[in-house]
Specification:
This protein has 451 residues and is α+β, with helices and mostly antiparallel strands. The chain is built from 24 helices and 14 strands. The longest helix has 18 residues. The radius of gyration is 29 Å and the shape is elongated. The relative contact order is 0.06.
Length: 451
């Protein structure tokens, strides 16, 4: 196998330089030591690597003897963590993998050289090495050419690569989206051919890869690739079911519910939470069940509630943490309230504005509108109102408390909550100015003390 070489500008920050120092320490003892994989790819693309991995011909015990702070995390696979000033660096032996029987890990490995190590990796752009001593990129799989051409290509036989680790199929989609790369034809065909085997992967691994796929790059492109590859029907059938569900053209000139969702996802900001992303993806899933044809008009009564039920079911299926699940479900259930905002009572408006998730709800509503008829009136109105009001406007100091009600002669019971809520509504609506008016309101609605 021929070797191509290339050059890159190596960063001078401490995290990067510590990786170079680890390589130098290994090399000083006569070992081959290279930076490997994604960090080399990112550096060649002018990106800051999330971490730095090192590949070496040193055995784990040799590596551990050279550094004061290490942790064996995969001795069977030749992997040791070297910890420098709190930052872990994965140092792995060059290796050749044996057969994969579980669709995730090789049953055996044999330590080898960098050429064999490159051949076992997933994609050519992830199989590059960098020799910091010679300041040279080493390429045994034509990864440099694919980087420059914007192509994602499996190393060697793509079907074999995907059979070795089933999750690589979703990783292919993720890298394609993240880097805006085209998936090479043989790699794409193998991915589509093997897609049903994705169900052999654990729920947690699929969940994490899906979230990264949807949040690391353009979410609309991610949805498109999931659909075109057939993974959407397998993993998110509720989303796939939105295809072909008609919408009223006067409100949704863009087309069916699936098209609307894809267009809405295109307007997500680059920095976004998984909760916001998943909520926007799922916000109209309930339209499939609630679609009605009424006197020639298409209606979706209660689709926001139905969508929230579906969203919760999906979150539970993918074992999404409770806190994130609750935010997703809340965003989906509330998403129509921004569009109705101008017709809401003032107290209801203020209660919504002070919700912890309001900012994300506003972003969701903006994306929702931009993915349909582009009407921003309600979104802009709500945003302007939120910016104009301070904390005291949204959460005023209570004119009455539970202790005040007791002092007035009311006996504590279930009415207390409704009494205090009525007073707060009056404050938010601007109809109560002082304590006396609050007491009068309580007596008018609930009767005087003792009744």
């Amino acid at each position: 196998m021929s070797m191509n070489t290339g050059h890159l500008i190596f960063p001078q920050d401490p995290v990067a330089q510590h990786a170079v120092t680890i390589c130098a320490t290994l090399q000083a003892k006569g070992h081959r030591a290279l930076l490997a994989g994604g960090c080399v790819r990112d550096l060649m693309l002018g990106r800051t690597p999330a971490d730095y991995d090192i590949a070496t011909d040193a055995l784990p015990e040799e590596t551990m003897a050279l550094f004061p702070h290490t942790r064996p995390v995969g001795i069977k696979f030749g992997v040791v963590l070297v910890i420098v000033k709190g930052t872990p660096y994965e140092v792995a032996c060059f290796r050749k993998d044996g057969p994969y029987l579980d669709g995730r890990r090789p049953e055996t490995v044999s330590f080898s050289d960098e050429k064999e190590d490159a051949r076992r990796r997933d994609f050519t752009i992830n199989a590059l090495f960098y020799d910091p001593a010679r300041q040279t990129v080493l390429d045994y799989v034509n990864g440099i050419a694919d980087l420059h051409a914007g192509i994602l290509r499996a190393v060697g036989d793509p079907q074999k690569r995907f059979q070795e680790d089933r999750l690589r199929m979703l990783r292919a989609l993720r890298f394609s989206v993240r880097f805006s790369y085209a998936i090479e034809d043989r790699t794409w065909r193998a991915l589509c051919r093997e897609r049903e085997a994705i169900t052999q992967v654990s729920t947690e691994r699929i969940r994490d890869e899906l979230i990264r796929l949807l949040t690391e790059g353009k979410a609309d492109r991610a949805l498109q690739l999931l659909d075109e590859s057939g993974f959407l029907k397998i993993l998110l059938p509720e989303v796939a079911a939105m295809k072909g569900v008609e919408q009223p053209p006067e409100f949704h000139p863009e087309g069916d519910v699936f098209t609307h969702t894809r267009l809405a996802l295109a307007h997500l900001p680059a920095q976004r939470s998984e909760a916001l992303t998943l909520a926007l993806l799922l916000h109209d899933t309930g339209k499939v069940k609630t679609q009605r044809f009424d006197a020639g008009r298409i209606r979706f009564f209660g689709h926001d509630h139905e969508s929230s039920v579906i969203a919760r079911r999906i979150c539970e299926r993918f074992l999404i943490p409770v806190k994130t699940t609750e935010r997703i479900v809340w965003l989906v259930k509330q998403h129509m309230r921004i569009h109705r905002f101008q017709n809401m009572r003032l107290s209801k408006q203020k209660q919504l504005l002070r919700e912890p998730g309001f900012h994300e709800l506003l972003v969701l509503a903006r994306c929702d509108a931009l993915g349909s008829n582009g009407d921003m009136n309600a979104v802009d109105y709500a945003e302007k109102m939120r910016n104009a009001l301070g904390d005291e406007d949204l959460s005023p100091t209570p004119l009455l408390t539970g202790n005040d009600l007791i002092a007035l002669g009311y006996k504590p019971d279930r009415r207390f909550r409704r009494m205090l809520e009525a007073v707060e509504r009056g404050q938010l609506d601007g109809t109560l100015a002082d304590r006396a008016e609050a007491i009068a309101l309580v007596e008018r609605i609930f009767g005087p003390p003792g009744t």
